[in-house]
Amino acid sequence: SAVISQKPSRDICQRGTSLTIQCQVDSQVTMMFWYRQQPGQSLTLIATANQGSEATYESGFVIDKFPISRPNLTFSTLTVSNMSPEDSSIYLCSVAREPDTQYFGPGTRLTVL
Amino acid sequence: TQLLEQSPQFLSIQEGENLTVYCNSSSVFSSLQWYRQEPGEGPVLLVTVVTGGEVKKLKRLTFQFGDARKDSSLHITAAQPGDTGLYLCAGAKAGYSTLTFGKGTMLLVSP
Predict the structure, then answer these.
(1) What is the pLDDT of residues B68-86, one digit of tens each?
(2) Which of A24, A80, A90, A107 could connect to A37 by a Cys-Cys bridge, CB 3.0–4.6 Å?
(3) pLDDT, tens digit, for every residue of A8-53?
(4) How many independent structural domains does chain B possess?
(5) Min Cα separation B9/chain A (Å)
(6) CATH code for the domain in which residue B35 is found
(7) Cα–Cα distance between B62 and B47 in angstroms, integer?
(8) Domain A4-103: which CATH class?
């Protein structure tokens, strides 16, 4: 498994501002992912955070809205830009150590007013 | 299009009852994972099944992967309040690093 921490654990933000979420893993991993989980919903993949290159975004998600950094093999950030109430969600990072298996962080609960 | 259909979406039962959650798809997956998520936490991996027809047991939980690797089930025997949570299935396709998640089954076990 993997020990994954996220900061902040929760935040309440004003419309139009941006929030950067951090994800730290206890050891090096190749694959890191960012997900969004809207209230009462399942997980939707936002992007794959690639070390040394631009993130790979899923359909419906763009870099201008969700810029991602991956400076090394243990750390990544996701920024939620120009927030609106529709961005209120839980944001989760995950890592893959073994093929086809992902481990998740505790999540960041974001509320946008 | 939802590639993984989970049913039921919500289940409320009494302690001691048995239950089965289903995860179905028209697509073939190289492996399938089951997660449980409790309020305020991230999903926790329960099991990964990779072989068609495979059955894995985790205490009172039994997981089965369909022969054609298109479906899976989770059976809980003698459910306890501690089993309460959101159960998610997720499938991986050969050659792809990403997972496809089902919509989840919210299980509530009352004492």
Answers:
(1) 999 999 999 999 999 999 9
(2) A90
(3) 999 999 999 999 999 999 999 888 999 999 988 889 999 999 888 8
(4) 1
(5) 10
(6) 2.60.40.10
(7) 10
(8) mainly beta
